[in-house]
Queue: 2 jobs
Job 1
Amino acid sequence: MEAFTPLRPHAKTHLVFLFFYPCLSVNPCVFTETCRYPLGMSSGQIQDEDISASSQWSESTAARFGRLDSDNGDGDGAWCPDIVSEPDDFREYLQVDLRSLHFITLVGTQGRHANGMGNEFAQRYRIKYSRDGKNWVGWRDRSGRQVIEGNKNAYDAVLKDLEPPIVAHFVRFMPITDPSMIVCMRVELYGCEWLDGLMSYSIPDGHQMIYRGLDVFFNDSVYDGTLAESRLTKGLGQLTDGTWGLDDFLHSHIHGVWPGYDYVGWSNKTFPKGYVEMIFDFDHIRNFTSMKVHCNNMVSRGVRVFRQVTCYFRSGSDWEADPVTFRPPGDDMSHGAHFVPVPLRDRTARSIKCRFHFGDQWMLFSEVAFQSGSAVYNTSLLSHKQGPPANTPPDDPTHKVDDSSTRILIGCLVAIIAILSTIIVIILWRQVWLKMLEKASRRLLDDELTARLAVQTQAFSLHHSSLSSVGGSTSMYERVYPLRADYQEPSRLIRKLPEFAQSSEHLGKLRQPGGSDSAPHYAEADIISLQESSDSSTYSITAVNMSLITGADSSMREFPREKLTFKEKLGEGQFGEVHLCEAEGLRDFLDEELSAEGNQESLLVAVKKLREDANKNARNDFLKEIRIMSRLRDPNIVRLLAVCVDKDPLCMITEYMENGDLNQFLVQCEFCPSCDFLFCSYTQLIGMAVQIASGMKYLSSLNFVHRDLATRNCLVGKNYTIKIADFGMSRNLYRGDYYRIQGRAVLPIRWMSWESILLGKFTMASDVWAFGVTLWEILTLCKEQPYSQLSDEQVIENTGEFFRNQGKQVYLPKPLCCPDGVYSDLMLSCWRRNAKERPSFQEIHTQLMESVAEQMGDA
Ligand code: ADP
C-alpha cells in the first residue's frame, strides 16, 4: 500500500521560503530552515472546528478568531480567554489540531488590535504539544527555558523560531495570564507535514567522551520522552530534529552549544553484545523501503559508521522472526559524516527494532529517516521527497542519496531563486523611489499644515486669551495658506498628518461629525471604554447570557426582578433608562452589611435596563459591562450588586449614587473659598480628584484601561463621594464630547491622548492623560468643554502638534482656582508627549493628597 501523503496544497504555495533558506542543496544542511510553511491559521486552511480553547471571554473572542493577521469575520479580532483566578498558572490555552503530525519550526503570535479598538496581547506564553492527543509535552528551548517572549503591542506579529523544532499533531499556545488582565492572541504555526509517521524512538542514553581533556557530550539533549534506567523512551529528539551534524563532531551548526551537541553517541565499552538497540514506533502500519542513518565517521578519533545493522519488524504484538541485515560498504577516512541508506526490503510494520553493531570504539548518529512505499518519509530529507521514478529498481544498499534527480531539483531551485531575486530587487528599488517621493511631498504637506494651524491658533488666541497664553502659539510663518473648501473634512486633515501615515487604517476611518445621523442610536457611543470592541453575530441571549453571567463570580447572581419596586427615573443612557428602585431582600441576598436608605430589608438601588428593542451589539456590550463591573471592587468604583438576565429586559443593579453624575453636579456648583451647598471649595474639588485618582489607581493595579475617564462618567454619592462608572458606554447627553468614526463608533477626542487618536493606542498612560483633562474639568467646575474654542478638526490638528512636539501644541489653560504647582507639576505632566514620562496613578494620588494636606495646612 502506498503510504505517501502529499504536502497540503497551501504548503506548496509558499516556496518563497526556499529563497531565504538556500542551504537545501548544500551539505551539511539544516532542514529546519526550509520547512517553514504557514500551516493555515491565517489562510483559513485550518478549519474553525480544529481550533479550540480552554475558555473564551465572549462568543466574539472565541478560539476560531485566534488566527494571525486576521481581523475580519464576525469576531472581535482575536481569541481572548476568560480572566483566571490564579496568576501565571498557564491554565488558559488556544489549541490547534493539525489533523496529522507536523514538523513545526516557527510560531507567530499577535494581539488583538481590531483596527485600533483593542489593545490586548500576550507578553509571554508557553507552548505545549501532543502527538497522540493524550500525552502533552511542554516545549523547551535548547537551554531548557519554557517561556517565550511574545508581543509588545497589539498589532505586530512576533515570530519565534522553535529551537528545537517539534513534531506534533496538536499544539497549545498558553498565554501567561493575570486575573486582572485580558490577554488576547492570534497565532500561526509554520512547518511542514511530518511524513515519516514516526511517533517515537527508544534508544540507550548517550555517552560522554573525554577527548584531549575536553568533555564531549553525546546525549540526546532535546528528547521529549522519558529517561529511565539509562534508556530514552516514548519521545522524539535530536535524531529527528532536521539538523544533521558536521564532519567534525566537536563543531556544530548551532551556536553556543557544547562539543558533540549534534550527535547522539555511544562507546562500545558499555555494550558487551557489540551493538546498540533502537526501537522506532510509527503512527500506523507502513510498508518500509529504506532507512537512512546520518553517521559521523571520524576514524582518526575512533568514530566509525556502524559495521552492520539488523532490523526486526512488528505489526502486532510480537517481533517477526526474519530480520533484515545489512552491512554498509567498507568506508575509509575520506568519507566524512554522511547518510547511510539501509534497505528495508518493503517490510510491513508498525515498529522497527534495529541493532547497530559498532564498527569502531564509538558510533555517533545525528539523524534517522524512513522511507515507506516509494517515498522518503522523514521530511528532513525533503530534497529527495519526490522519490525514485516508477521504473527505479528496489533500493540498492550502495545507493547514494545525491542522485541526478536531486541535481535537477537543485537546478530548478536556483532558477526560481534567481527569478525571485530579480523581482525583489525591482520591488526594493521601487520602494526606495516611492519613499523619496513621499518624503518630498510630506515636507510640503507639513509646511502647509503648520501654517494652517498657526492661522487657526492665532484666530482662537485672539478670542480666548487664556488659551493662547498656554499654547503660546502665534504665527511665525511667512507662508500663509487660506483655508480651502475641504478644510472641514477632518478625515482629510488627519490623513495629512505624518502620524496618520503610520496608522492609516485606523485614522482612515474617521469621518465628518454629524455625517451619518442615520447611524443607529446605540452606535453612537460603542467601543470607547470597553476593553473589547462590540460585535457578535452569533449572540443568543438565552444561551450565551447565562454562560456569560453565571460563572464563578458570585457578584453576578440573578436577583428576582419582581422584588424591585420602581421609585423614579434617574436618567437615560445609551442602553436605556436608569431607575431608582427599592430592592426587597437584597441585603439578605447579598449576605453582607450595606449602608443604604430604606427599611431594614430593602435597599435603594439604581437599576440600569437594556431597552427592549436593543440590537445584539447592545446586548453584548451590556453583558460585557456586567462582566467587567462584576470583577471590580473598590470604594471609588461603582459597584454592581446583582443582575436580572433571566429574561428581557436585561437589568444590572448597581449601588445608588444620590447626586447623579459629576459633570451635572459640578455644573450646578459655584466656586467659593469656604463652601456651602452647591458651592465648592478648592479642597472639596481636589478631594473629588483624589477619589478618582484612587479609583484609577485600583484599576491600574489590575492593568485595566478605562478608555473613557471624564467627569460625565463619574457618579457622586453622599458627602461628595465619587465613584468611577461607565465601563461600557457614554451617554447621549454628552454626544458633543464624542467624535464619530464610520458612523458606528465615536471617540471622546478632547479627553484622548495623542497616541490614542493617532495610533489607536489605549494604555494606562492614555488614561492618565484623560485624568489630566478630568482634573481640569473639575477645577473649572465643568463650565466649559475642554478646548471649547477648537472645533473637532482643530483638536485633531492639535494632536498632530503634540506628536510633532515643536512647541506649537495648545494645552488646556490653568483653571482659575488651580495652584501653579498642581497645574505645572501635575496637570501638564499628564499631557507629556512621551507616555512613559507621564506620572502613574499612584504618583498622581500621592501628589493630590499632598496638595490637600497643604491646603488644609494653609487653612
Ligand atoms: P449609560 O452607561 O447607558 O450611558 P449611564 O450609566 O451613564 O448610562 O446612566 C445614565 C444616567 O443615569 C447618569 O447620567 C446618571 O444621572 C444616572 N445614573 C446612572 N447610574 C446611577 C447610579 N448608580 N446612581 C444614581 N444615578 C445613576
Job 2
Amino acid sequence: MPGLDGVASPIMTHIIDGKAIAQEIRAGIRREIETLKAAGHRPPGLTVVLVGDNPASEVYVRNKEKAAKEAGFTGGETRLPAATSEAELLARIAVLNSDAAVDGILVQLPLPSHISEPRVIEAIHPDKDVDGFHPMNMGRLVAGLPAPAPCTPLGVMEMLRRLPCDLEGKELVVLGRSNIVGKPMALLALHKKAGANATVTVCHSATSRLAEVTRRADVIVAAIGRARFLKADMVKPGAVVIDVGINRQEDGKLCGDVDYEPVSKIASAITPVPGGVGPMTIAMLLKNTLDCYRRRTGA
Ligand code: GUN
C-alpha cells in the first residue's frame, strides 16, 4: 500500500487474540454467577448431549463442559452411544426440557446419520436452546427480536466490537451459508443497530467471480470448511479477516479457511487458528446459557 510519501509501507496487522477475549468474558460470567449465588439464587444449569464417538465432537464437548464448570454452571454431559435411536434421544431431550434446573440444552452436531438433526433441534424447548438453532429462535433472529443466537457468529460480532471494528456502512462478505455460521452471521451483521448495519454479501459454492466479491470486502468472515481457501489475492489490503474454519491438515495440525501467512501480511486484523474464533464460541455458549437462565428465572 502506498504511504503518504508514495513509498509502499507495510501494514501493521493486529492478531486478534480470541483466547484472551474469551477468558475475559468467561471471568465476567463467573463473577455474575458468584453474585447470583451470594444473593441466594441457584446457579444456571447447562447440559451438553453427545451422541456417538466423533473424535472432534468429543474434544469440543469436553472444552464446553470444562468452561461451564469453571464458570460455576451446574449440569454436565449426557453421553449416549452411537446406536441410540432418534426416539431415545427425543425422550432424553423431553426429560431435560421439563427439568427446572436445566436452563440450557446443547446437542452436539453432527448427529449419527440415522437421526434427523432438524427433528432433534425442534425438540429442544426454544427457551433452553442455547445454540439458537431452533426454527423459532432463527425466526426471531431474522425479525431482530431478542433470542439466543448461534454462538459462533455471536462470538465474531463480539470480537469485532472489541477490536473495535464498527460494521456500520461497511462491506461484509461471509463465505459459507450454513445454518450454524454463515446465515446467522449475515443476519447479525445486517441488523440496524450499533456495531452492525453492514452491507452484507453471502458467498457459497455457486458464487461466480468470487475473488471480485471478496476483494470488495472491508470485513471477511470465512466459514466454508475448506483448508486455506481464502488466498491473499482475494483480500483487499487493510481488510479485517475472521477465520471460522477448523481443518485438520495431513501433518495433524489445525488450519483455518484462510491462507494465514500471506493473508496476515495484508490484513489490518486477522484471527489465528487455533486461538481465534474457537474460544469465543464457548464464551458465547456460556453467555447464552446465562441469558436463558435470567429469562426463565427473572434473576
Ligand atoms: N457442531 C459444530 N458447531 C456446533 C455448535 O455451535 N453447536 C452444536 N450443537 N454443534 C456444533
